[in-house]
Design brief:
Chain A: Keywords: Amino-acid transport, Cell membrane, Membrane, Transmembrane, Transmembrane helix, Transport. Chain A: This is Branched-chain amino acid transport system permease protein. Chain A: Belongs to the binding-protein-dependent transport system permease family. LivHM subfamily. Chain A: The chain crosses the membrane at residues 18-37, 57-76, 96-114, 120-138, 150-172, 192-216, 250-272, 284-306, 318-336. The complex is a heterodimer. Chain A is mainly alpha-helical. Chain A has one domain. In chain A, 72% of the residues lie in helices and 2% in strands. In chain A, strands 1-2 form a two-stranded antiparallel sheet. In chain A, strand 1 and strand 2 form a beta hairpin. The radius of gyration of chain A is 21 Å and the shape is globular. The model of chain A has no long low-confidence stretch (mean pLDDT 84). Chain B is an alpha/beta fold. Chain B folds into 2 domains: 28-329, ABC transporter involved in vitamin B12 uptake, BtuC, CATH 1.10.3470; 361-438 and 527-606, 3-Layer(aba) Sandwich (Rossmann fold), CATH 3.40.50. Chain B is 57% helix and 11% strand. Chain B has 25 helices and 12 strands. In chain B, the strands form 3 sheets. In chain B, strands 8-9-10-5-11-12 form a 6-stranded mixed β-sheet, sandwiched between helices. In chain B, strands 4-3-6-7 form a 4-stranded antiparallel β-sheet, covered by helices on one side. In chain B, strands 1-2 form a two-stranded antiparallel ribbon. In chain B, helix 5 (93-115) runs antiparallel to helix 10 (213-239), helix 12 crosses helix 13 and helix 20 (479-496) crosses helix 21 (511-524). The radius of gyration of chain B is 29 Å and the shape is elongated. Classes of the chains: A mainly alpha, B alpha/beta. Chains A and B meet through helix 7, helix 12, helix 14 and helix 15 of A and helix 5, helix 6, helix 9, helix 11 and helix 13 of B.
């Protein structure tokens, strides 16, 4: 291996690592607010990448249909819960927010000439289509069992992953897709050639992390989410709705992973089932952070991306084996650091 | 076991043998093949029922364990030139079974070793990652045939009998399934089984009763992996061909679905779940392509949705819901017995530990301090308790009483100061060590296993007074000891006044009775020091009087008691000495009447009179 190859692999590693880091952050965010390990996060990534690819290929975008269906199921569940609680069905303007939003993005996605609207707008519309999946899935799948034990939440998350993967096959078909790069420009620094796509990914990741930091430190809603993560009951007592916190954390996770999907789409060929392995690497990052620490998780995810890139060079067919086996020493280290016995809730 | 029960069990076993022998000849050949698959799946699912349904641990890696064993079997059976150190195993199905089991258990032990000490989220994530790793490994290693797999596994021959036809395999597979089922039922109904059942939500309590929860988790995980290894061995000889796909993570998730659909808490749910999934899948594979078009395995989508609905509507699975519906019918026929069964009452009592000498110092605390960050929960506490003495610790809420209890029982570690139990320092000892040394406790927030019977809950306290493990329980070699343990539980329950509720579910008792049950459980440990955290809360007057009588009797037997209590009448009438705490400090100690007259105490309780 010479320096040039090392640099190329390093670039690859950093791109993937940055995306794993974004996913690890969303996993931690959702886990700390709701206790749910959001296994279907990977499907948000693959849905976004494949939707973007459909737009560029001039194929019809079908994700809207799923949004409408989930939205209707959510409304029916709202009505059923209200009737069960013996309340009268009352009209509230806030209830219309989500259906209106879903109708608007779905409308745009079927009427616009998507092939010709330019890459920036395609990307924005893709993310706009993926974001409501988060809160809608939370409403339909997790809200009814929000107080169940961790095992039930995990099982539903796994089942949701399985169902969404098959639904992805139905919506996008079995073929893999790759989108056009944001720009073809390359830069040369000394001997090294740096792809502009690399810079795009890394810059956007940094901006996103900075925005998240500002949101959690400065914004009242961000602080409310943090409060829920620290103590759910306490947050509820001071007037923070756990349902809203759950939906917000899911929306944020869907936003981050939708954006990751758009970022990764020009680099890797994505299939309907590619999201899972990508999100699992985010999970490895989150585990390195002990399912608690954001900076450690992000650093771990970047390191994972680098290990992956270099193992592609040395033993390409054992890439996944190496990446996931790396988990063992991490778990061992966590295990040794662990003290005492705790009861699961 | 009573003669009638023994007769019924024998009859049931006979019926099962007849069904297993006759069924393959009555069914269509295709049905026999399908049922063979159901049997193999049920074996894996049984492991998940034990692990997840009963132990509360989640693994999505069971398919990979099946794969390890199936590949080991196929390799040993087909490879012509094995390396010399393996040659002695080649060709023998027993050798293949041994190798498959050993390899699977080794991998499970490594995976369990690094995840089982951590919180419950790490095992599923670890098994998912490893499930994927092993799948790629199966598909990549040349020696395993890559994604094409290994073909040409010869038919199975055991004891000179060939198992080539599906009919003969049916008999073998279902005998293995039924034997495993029986073994699991035996295991759950024993000392080792009770320990496994505490894992699901009772680990702090279990450690305080002397159960090694890490070891118990490991044993459970290894048992589940062992069942998967057996299934893999049968799979290799049934299909006579192995390839990576049936051992993928997707398959691992499917096994979990089988357990959940069948009812993860029910041993029989393994067969029902495996059967339901296999037959439903066949049905969906016929119907779905008509609805959604060809080209995908959409049945997995339906299964995903089905499991989501199931978890929302009946989180305990089909078997549990059915059992709850049927229960009134069964109970109408057979009224629950009130006392313990004769085989239990006839058992000789357990040996007791030597009593401490009268006035021996049981507990000695010097300068105990516990800080949580800036908060000093206990500050420089010193006191002692002798055998046959009752010390009451009182104080307003937040005075640091429960923190003190947690340190005394080694659930928590002091920041400074020393605790001596029977003259030996407890520094560095675990809750389990303290239980073994003769300390037993109850909890302020009751920690019982609500779906287990009152008798079994109490018997957990006697865990350290027995020694029989998993294999004795499976083979029923533990019955003598088990009868003694249950008899001890019965004796203590009668003593605390719960003799009429032996077979009720612990969760169905009133809160006051649950507290008393915790005392019975603690007494089962034959302790010399009893820590009681608010034992009289929720009791009626008559029950409080009975409890006071009981504690007086224990004092007369030489047991030392430390109790935290808010009921002043109860405390002042019973305790030999009273210690008063406020804001983490000891503000008074002495005879009940001295303490009652102490101005500091009055101020702490009633507010200062300025």
């Amino acid at each position: 291996m010479n320096a040039q190859i090392a640099l190329l692999l390093g670039q690859d590693g950093f791109i993937n690592g940055a995306i794993y880091a974004l996913l690890a952050l969303s996993i931690l965010l959702v886990f700390s607010v709701t206790r749910i390990l959001l296994i279907p996060l990977g499907e948000f990534v693959s849905y976004a990448a494949l939707t973007m690819a459909s737009m560029q290929a001039g194929k019809p975008v079908m994700l809207g249909a799923m949004l409408v269906a989930l939205c209707l199921i959510g409304l029916l569940m709202d009505a059923r819960d209200a009737l069960r609680a013996g309340r009268r069905l009352r009209f509230r303007a806030s209830k219309l927010l989500m259906p209106a939003y879903v109708a608007a993005v779905t409308g745009l996605s079927v009427t616009l000439p998507l092939e010709h609207i330019g890459m920036a707008f395609q990307g924005a519309l893709t993310v706009a289509l993926v974001v409501p999946l988060g809160p809608l899935l939370y409403r339909v799948l997790f809200l009814p069992i929000a107080s169940a034990n961790g095992l039930v939440l995990l099982i539903v998350a796994i089942a949701a992953h399985v169902a969404l993967t098959s639904a992805g096959l139905l919506i996008f078909g079995p073929e893999g897709s790759r989108t056009e790069p944001f720009s073809d420009a390359t830069f040369t620094i000394g001997d090294a050639i740096i792809n502009s796509q690399t810079l795009w990914v890394i810059a956007l990741s940094f901006i996103l992390i900075a925005l998240l930091y500002a949101f959690f430190e400065k914004n009242l809603y961000g602080k409310a989410l943090r409060a829920t993560a620290v103590d759910r009951l306490g947050a509820q007592l001071v007037g923070i709705s756990p349902a809203l916190a759950g939906k917000a954390s899911f929306a944020l996770a869907a936003f981050i992973s939708g954006l990751s999907g758009v970022l990764i789409a020009p680099i890797t060929t994505i299939y309907f089932d590619s999201g899972f392995v990508i999100s699992l690497k985010g999970f490895v990052g989150a585990i390195i952070g002990g399912l608690a620490s954001y900076p450690v998780a992000a650093a771990g995810a970047v390191a994972l991306g680098l290990v992956e890139a270099f193992s592609t060079f040395y033993a390409s067919s054992y890439k996944e084996v190496i990446v996931f086996t790396l988990l063992l020493p991490v778990l061992l280290w966590r295990s040794v650091a662990q003290k005492g016995v705790k009861d699961e809730q | 076991m009573s003669p009638i029960l023994r007769f019924r069990t024998a009859l049931l076993a006979l019926a099962a043998i007849v069904v297993v022998l006759v069924a393959p000849h009555l069914l269509a050949p295709y049905q026999v093949v399908v049922l063979n698959n159901v049997g193999i799946f049920a074996l894996v699912t049984l492991g998940i029922v034990l692990l997840t349904g009963i132990g509360g641990l989640t693994s999505f890696g069971q398919a990979a364990f099946v794969g390890i064993s199936a590949y080991a079997t196929a390799c040993l059976a087909t490879m012509a030139d094995l390396p010399p150190w393996l040659a002695w195993l080649g060709g023998s199905p027993w050798g293949a079974l041994a190798a498959g089991l050993a390899l699977t258990l080794l991998v499970a032990a490594i995976l369990g070793g690094v995840t089982l000490r951590l919180s419950g989220h790490y095992l599923p994530l670890g098994t998912i990652a490893w499930g994927i790793s092993l799948y790629y490994l199966f598909g990549t290693l040349d020696i395993l045939g890559g994604f094409a797999g290994i073909t040409g596994v010869p038919p199975l021959r055991l004891f000179g009998i060939g198992f080539e036809s599906s009919e003969s395999l049916f008999v073998l597979i279902w005998v293995v399934v039924l034997v495993s089922l029986l073994a699991t039922l035996n295991l759950l109904d024993s000392r080792a089984g009770r320990a496994i059942r505490t894992l699901n939500g009772g680990q702090i309590m279990a450690e305080s009763m002397g159960i090694d929860t890490f070891r118990t988790k490991m044993v459970t995980f290894l048992l589940a992996a062992g069942l998967a290894a057996f299934a893999g061995w049968l799979y290799a000889y049934t299909q006579r061909f192995v390839a990576p796909t049936p051992f993928s993570l997707q398959a691992g998730i499917e096994y979990m679905f089988m357990a959940l659909i069948g009812g993860a808490g029910f041993v029989w749910g393994a067969i029902i779940g495996a059967g339901a999934v296999v037959y439903l899948k066949e049905l969906l594979q016929d119907v779905l392509p008509l609805l959604l078009g060809k080209g995908g395995n959409y049945e997995t989508m339906v299964f995903g949705l089905l499991v989501i609905v199931l978890m929302q509507k009946m989180p305990l699975g089909i078997t549990d819901t059915a059992a709850r519906r049927l229960k009134p019918l069964l109970h109408a026929r057979r009224p629950a017995p009130s006392g313990a069964a004769p085989w239990i009452t006839a058992a000789p009592p357990l040996p007791r530990r030597p009593r401490p000498a009268p006035a021996e110092s049981i507990l000695e605390v010097r300068g105990l301090t516990r800080r949580f960050g800036g908060l000093v929960a206990n500050h420089d506490l010193s006191f002692s308790v002798q055998a046959g003495q009752i010390l009451a610790v009182i104080g307003p809420n937040g005075a640091g009483k429960s923190t003190l209890f947690n340190q005394l029982s080694c659930v928590d570690t002091p920041t400074a100061g020393q605790i001596f139990f029977r003259g030996r320092t407890v520094n560095g000892r675990s809750a389990r060590d303290m239980a073994a040394a003769g300390l037993a406790r109850t909890f302020q927030h009751v920690k019982l296993l609500p779906t287990m019977s009152v008798l079994e809950n109490a018997a957990i306290g006697a865990h350290l007074r027995g020694g029989k493990g998993v294999f004795s329980s499976i083979l029923r070699l533990d019955r003598r000891e088990e009868a003694q343990l249950l008899k001890e539980a019965e004796t203590q329950l009668v003593r605390v006044g719960l003799g009429a509720h032996l077979h009720a579910e612990a969760g169905s008792l009133a809160l006051g009775q649950q507290r008393v049950l915790e005392i019975a459980r603690a007494l089962c440990a034959d302790p010399c020091l009893l820590l009681l955290d608010e034992p009289a809360a929720g009791l009626r007057l008559k029950e409080k009087e009975n409890l006071a009588d009981l504690l007086s009797k224990l004092r007369a037997e030489g047991i030392a008691v430390v109790l935290v209590e808010h009921d002043m009448d109860f405390v002042m009438g019973l305790a030999d000495r009273v210690m008063v705490m406020d804001f983490g400090e000891k503000i008074a100690e002495g005879l009940p009447e001295q303490v009652q007259a102490n101005p500091l105490v009055l101020e702490a309780y009633l507010g200062g009179a300025e």
